Amino acid sequence: MTRRLHFNLFIHDTGHHEASWRLPDAHPLAHLDIDYVERLARIAESAKFDSLFLADSPVLWGDPGRRPSGSLEPTVLLTALARATSRIGLIATASTSYNDPFNLARRFASLDHVSGGRAGWNIVTTAGDDAARNFGLDAQPAHADRYERAAEFVEVSKKLWDSWDDDAVVADKDRGVHAEADRVHVINHEGTYFRVRGPLNVPRSPQGYPLLVQAGSSEDGRDFAARYAEAVFTAQPTLAEGQVFYADVKRRAAEAGRDPDTVKILPGIVPVLGETEAQARELEAELDRLIVPKYAVEQLSKQLGVPAERLALDDQLPADLPSEDDIEGMKSRYTLIVELARRERLTVRQLIGRLGGGRGHRTFAGTPVQVADTIQQWFEQGAADGFNIMPAVLPSGLESFVERVLPVLRARGLFRTEYEGSTLREHYGLARPASQYALVTAQ
Amino acid sequence: MTRRLHFNLFIHDTGHHEASWRLPDAHPLAHLDIDYVERLARIAESAKFDSLFLADSPVLWGDPGRRPSGSLEPTVLLTALARATSRIGLIATASTSYNDPFNLARRFASLDHVSGGRAGWNIVTTAGDDAARNFGLDAQPAHADRYERAAEFVEVSKKLWDSWDDDAVVADKDRGVHAEADRVHVINHEGTYFRVRGPLNVPRSPQGYPLLVQAGSSEDGRDFAARYAEAVFTAQPTLAEGQVFYADVKRRAAEAGRDPDTVKILPGIVPVLGETEAQARELEAELDRLIVPKYAVEQLSKQLGVPAERLALDDQLPADLPSEDDIEGMKSRYTLIVELARRERLTVRQLIGRLGGGRGHRTFAGTPVQVADTIQQWFEQGAADGFNIMPAVLPSGLESFVERVLPVLRARGLFRTEYEGSTLREHYGLARPASQYALVTAQ
């Protein structure tokens, strides 16, 4: 089969640009309006996107003045979207540091049932002390500990999802037996972080379990992705860096004993479209002018762990920043920001403009053909299996991508015109996982 | 205003009778079929029920052969129902023993946003060692400890729900200020069970917070209800017992400084309807014949903490049962079962027939007028503000209640013909709670 692009829509209220909510047409309460989010989901589904995705963290992040803050919990929100759509995949972010495996595994199994096999889980470890303080801790656990817990969390979850054999429910009215008890398994997990008896209290779901997605690009994050992820979201600012990352994760997956084709790499892209390149750049500049410097500097100060007063708007970043090794938060995001600033010798004002658009993801202002060319180049030159589409402005940026970029890619035979499968895993060309317990029984 | 009945529909897959799934028309996978549950919700809404409700426990309870087992997580399921309905209240059960306040408060706030102010939370402490073993414990915490934790859990949740003032979000595009930071409050809760910084990462929801519901009838449970509950579900087998319970909870609420009218008492009723009383009794007998004794005895053995081999089908219960004080599980359910068996000198076989229908709730087989008479009697003689309707068979038992009992009650002026309000709290005639932080600011 011809290799085809995969597209995920990253939904972020009025758009990924932090000032998008200030545009005259922007819906000021988009983040709380389920009708609005459903409209985005329907657009993406009619355009045959593989999936849509919601980021999340169990904390109020930054100053609530800066942009729409606080958001509906993703598994709740996606359940509503599951009923408004019928084909598109639904990927929710959830933290392994601040959840219990039993509860979270059950919610994802439920979402997979309600959506008919369209659930995905973006597995995050949740950086930041403020999040930790919402859960009885004084500070976040160390980066490596968070990833160790995440790995055990996924192992427990898979056991729970597998705890009902696919054929456990027989609903035999004559015998009066609803499920065969010997096809429902206690898991008795005993590990470093968790002790869980099981079985799960939901029968096995259409996909077996949700598509496993991962978005951390640190060393720990890449190793985790290589072991568990079926799709990887990543921020790669240049083609060359994207190629290195792509090759590295595929190599690590092979080393972990997996077929590298079963790990789909999806860099983020923030398309800003115009009829001409100049028009696109003008829209980008208009958005950057709407950024409130005070909020953006506070945000940058948090991300870098540097006091705001040391970030003068018209100077470059201070020379004495810590190294990634000393960062316990979002390591790869930290390095990406610092390298971007150093490489292009940006002032703080220029840097917040660049980050305001896509937070370090590849922002691309241009014509539809220019955007399509870039996508094709990354796809064909070993940097991407598809893209995480992050419109700077929603819904207009999604609409113009769908109406103007996708037809170019379809004309080149690079993107589907119809869904071929019905589950999220089928959209990404991945097989339904077998149950670890049923396999044991069959041997 | 005339005092009117309140009705809640307790949804339980194919019906509350444990053998209902074996009837020829029963949908064998009802518990996993969101279309089926939506159909029930639409029937209840078109009949102007105040609310619908889902029980829950984070454990697979009993033998999965016995009846449809495992169920979709309630906040997920109710979000789907929120989009299929527009007026009826949506009450989900969730455990205070096996959740974190931050995550749970956020899910309920999200459900309240998505549903436009129709969320309710049935607060349970979750009995049973098997549930505890899904969360790293060897055995359940003591009954009193579970209730102490529940009280603190509710206090933390209320602080989180109140952490955004109602007017915090201003979305001022000109100034570039989305929410006023001084109207969003860190809660800094430090208690016995929880330390939570806050604020919540969801703005205050339409109802301020979900309707608080409680269903435990032990001493601890009644005290908890008196302090926090706005609606109480309870199992009361006779009018006299219902009257005592009703007076007791209202008295405790007054002692806790609350207006007793703001605590609505809703006993469960399992209506089994026939054109004649004989017809109703025949349907009841048919259901009881479908009970598989092996499963029912195992269930009873668990509930009483007595080995199954000591429960001979044609004997009465053993004389040397423990007292309620020694029970750490569902105390009031335990006492209810034992008293029912002793009072009516039931054999184990007779007892499992009685429990198979409504698990100790008032089962009532009769004509529509007989059922309406009983409801009116309880309502007017100080035993109920409304009822938790638990059809033995679904959907048919709900349909016949709606088509044949409700018209009788409406003709007597006892039940609404149209919704007057739009939120769940409005249906129950309760005021929207003010925020504790906004009150402080205003003084």
TrEMBL record, chains A, B:
<dbReference type="InterPro" id="IPR036661">
    <property type="entry name" value="Luciferase-like_sf"/>
</dbReference>
<keyword id="KW-0288">FMN</keyword>
<keyword id="KW-0560">Oxidoreductase</keyword>
<feature type="binding site">
    <location>
        <position position="147"/>
    </location>
    <ligand>
        <name>FMN</name>
    </ligand>
</feature>
<dbReference type="InterPro" id="IPR016215">
    <property type="entry name" value="NTA_MOA"/>
</dbReference>
<protein>
    <submittedName>
        <fullName>FMN-dependent oxidoreductase (Nitrilotriacetate monooxygenase family)</fullName>
    </submittedName>
</protein>
<feature type="binding site">
    <location>
        <position position="217"/>
    </location>
    <ligand>
        <name>FMN</name>
    </ligand>
</feature>
<dbReference type="Pfam" id="PF00296">
    <property type="entry name" value="Bac_luciferase"/>
</dbReference>
<keyword id="KW-0285">Flavoprotein</keyword>
<dbReference type="GO" id="GO:0004497">
    <property type="term" value="F:monooxygenase activity"/>
</dbReference>
<feature type="domain" description="Luciferase-like">
    <location>
        <begin position="30"/>
        <end position="383"/>
    </location>
</feature>
<feature type="binding site">
    <location>
        <position position="218"/>
    </location>
    <ligand>
        <name>FMN</name>
    </ligand>
</feature>
<comment type="similarity">
    <text>Belongs to the NtaA/SnaA/DszA monooxygenase family.</text>
</comment>
<feature type="binding site">
    <location>
        <position position="93"/>
    </location>
    <ligand>
        <name>FMN</name>
    </ligand>
</feature>
<feature type="binding site">
    <location>
        <position position="143"/>
    </location>
    <ligand>
        <name>FMN</name>
    </ligand>
</feature>
<dbReference type="GO" id="GO:0016705">
    <property type="term" value="F:oxidoreductase activity, acting on paired donors, with incorporation or reduction of molecular oxygen"/>
</dbReference>
<feature type="binding site">
    <location>
        <position position="56"/>
    </location>
    <ligand>
        <name>FMN</name>
    </ligand>
</feature>
<keyword id="KW-0503">Monooxygenase</keyword>
<dbReference type="InterPro" id="IPR051260">
    <property type="entry name" value="Diverse_substr_monoxygenases"/>
</dbReference>
<dbReference type="InterPro" id="IPR011251">
    <property type="entry name" value="Luciferase-like_dom"/>
</dbReference>
